[in-house]
Design brief:
With 130 residues, this protein is an alpha+beta fold. The protein has one domain (25-122). The protein contains three helices and eight strands, in the order αββαββββββα. The strands form two sheets. A six-stranded antiparallel beta sheet has the order 1-2-5-6-7-8. Strands 3-4 form a two-stranded antiparallel sheet. A hairpin with a 2-residue loop joins β1 (27-33) and β2. The protein is extended and about 65 Å long. It starts with a helix and ends in an 8-residue tail after the last helix. Mean pLDDT is 82; it is low at 126-130.
Amino acid sequence: MKFYNYRILVLLIVSFVLSACITMPGHRHVTEEEGFYLRVETPSLEIRKQIRFNAELNGLKYLPETAWIKLIVTDSKGKHDLMIKNSDGLIIYDYTLNGQKTSFDESGREWFDSVIPKVAKILGLVGGNI
């Protein structure tokens, strides 16, 4: 009976170690600083490179359907939480300010436009590409 329990213990340890070594496929970029969190997730680096900002770097021009961007920034107005996804070819902005779901209106867009240069710099934006 002891040998049987030992085999189960060894199997559990090996399973745990292997599960820690396996990561889900895809490309993730996470940056976390005081008051600033950015996560970009795509199935591959090639798809991440398809993400586009406009030429003025004040808006998102293209986001593949398989990609998403999560941005959380705390500033003098409070905590901005923005999730950006593509749904049927439309870029969807799910925006929360200080814990309250808010429409992504002119004020939200002005805030987003102000942080795009930092996002672009972090991700190595060159020629309108992330």
